[in-house]
Specification:
The chain has 13 helices and 17 strands. The chain is elongated. It has two domains: 178 residues, Creatine Amidinohydrolase, Chain A, domain 1 (3-Layer(aba) Sandwich), CATH 3.40.350; 231 residues, Creatinase/methionine aminopeptidase superfamily (Creatine Amidinohydrolase, Alpha-Beta Complex). By secondary structure, it is α+β, with helices and mostly antiparallel strands.
Length: 425
């Protein structure tokens, strides 16, 4: 005879799941499905995904490795490790989440953590959670059984430290005869590139919040304020509309500084007759928005600024029209570059046209064509140091099967008429 579930236990479990979903913005079942897909792809190989460690000083902010966040949704467990062991005879142990031991003395400073319990497992949506003190033993069992080590973390250049999974597996291979490595570094790159409906909803929310920040800039921009004032207008707009922070350091470059791609000074005063190039975006639940606009400080473009602006806008619209699933960044870049080169400014456009966007601003890029439901940036520009200004226009584009991507950041004024109207409205 089946027994009824305790209403209290059911309510607690439901509340834990709701809390987790609210924290992550993505249902726990989606994370579980991602892990299951990886397990099936690994077949007979063992894999590890590391969260990374926290800066020991109070100045650092912990950010879990995007691969770890993508597979677990866990963002506040420095030192955590995910073991994927598809050959484990115990099904519940084919995925094990290892967390650092509790340290009451340290947690008085950094915040108290949950004991391993049904509550914690429900909150994270992982059935088997252990402490990292048991990691070596379970890894040894898994690697002896499989003798095939799958690499999931991105590979490193010879000038950088090796990836954390390769570092551990090399030590394991020294102790387990007959071991071999399998390159699966493209697996999570491909998975992360094609966004799920839940991810797209978070990215659209980040775009909507970013639009609020740019609206604040359009209303507050005027001669006499500084580049930092513009940065603060944008970022305050993000924080007051649901974002905890900007997705990256805001670029706010006026006059000559608009010609420096990654200008970070943001301290110069702004003058009538200049333009300011703003490259900024909000982060929402881990997902980044990345937008660039070029605005006239005094509210009106000069004829020369308008001329260059219209060329860049034409190039960007051509690139967006060329965007569809199965195309390449090279083809999108060519669509934009052809317009700028034909106008005579090819040498003034010296960077690529875009990149993947997601859990990272410059998100991981898989090999091959751009998949359906990827989100990419399209950001052509013309930079004229001798004339003391530059123009870049950037939007976040959802890649679909049909030609012409869907602009997630279309709410932010972009045409000359829209910008000037917004600044005088």
């Amino acid at each position: 005879m089946a027994t009824k579930k305790s209403p209290a236990k059911s309510a607690a479990k439901s509340a834990a799941k709701s809390t987790a979903a609210a924290l992550h913005g993505i249902d726990l079942a989606e994370y579980a499905a991602r892990r299951e897909h990886v397990l099936k792809t690994l077949k007979d190989s063992v894999a590890l995904v590391f969260a990374g460690d926290m800066d020991a000083s109070i100045h650092g902010e912990f950010r879990a490795h995007p691969h770890f966040q993508y597979l677990t949704g866990v963002v506040d467990e420095p030192g955590a490790v995910l073991l994927l062991d598809p050959l484990n005879p115990v099904e519940a142990r084919r995925t094990i989440l290892f967390l650092k031991p509790l340290n009451p003395e340290l947690e008085k400073w950094d915040g108290f953590r949950e004991e391993i319990s049904s509550k914690l497992k429900a909150m994270y949506g992982v059935g088997t959670i252990m402490r990292t003190t048991a990691f070596a033993r379970f890894l040894l069992e898994a690697t002896k059984r499989a003798k095939r080590f799958a690499l999931l973390h991105p590979l490193s250049a010879h000038t950088a430290p090796v990836s954390p999974d390769l570092d551990v597996f090399r030590k394991s291979a020294e102790r387990i005869p007959g071991s071999s490595f399998v390159d699966h570094t493209q697996l999570l790159a491909v998975m992360r590139a094609a966004k799920s409906p839940s991810e797209l909803a978070l990215m659209q929310r980040a775009a909507d919040i970013t639009a609020k920040g740019y609206d604040a800039v359009l209303r507050g921009l005027k001669p006499g304020i500084t580049e930092f004032d513009v940065q603060e207008l944008a970022e305050h707009g993000y924080r007051t509309n649901g974002s905890r922070k900007a997705a990256y350091h805001t670029i706010a470059g006026g006059a000559f500084n608009a010609t420096v791609l990654h200008y970070h000074g943001n301290r110069e005063p702004l003058h009538d007759g200049e333009v300011i190039l703003i490259d900024s975006g909000a982060e929402y639940m881990g997902y980044a928005c990345d937008v660039t606009r070029t605005f006239p400080v005094g509210g009106r473009f000069t004829p020369r600024q308008r001329e260059i602006y219209e060329i860049v806008l034409e190039a960007q619209l051509a690139a967006i029209a060329a965007t569809k699933a199965g195309t390449t960044f090279a083809a999108i870049d060519k669509a934009a570059r052809d317009v700028i080169t034909k106008a005579g400014y090819g040498d003034a456009y010296f960077h690529g046209t875009g990149h993947h966007l997601g859990l990272e601003v410059h998100d991981i890029t898989p090999e091959g064509p751009i998949p359906e439901n990827a989100v990419i940036t399209i950001e052509p520009g013309i930079y004229l140091p001798a004339e003391n200004f530059g123009v870049r226009i950037e939007d976040d584009i959802l890649v679909t099967k049909k030609a012409g991507g869907v602009n997630l950041t279309a709410a932010i004024p972009k045409t000359v008429a829209e910008i000037e109207r917004a600044m005088h409205g």
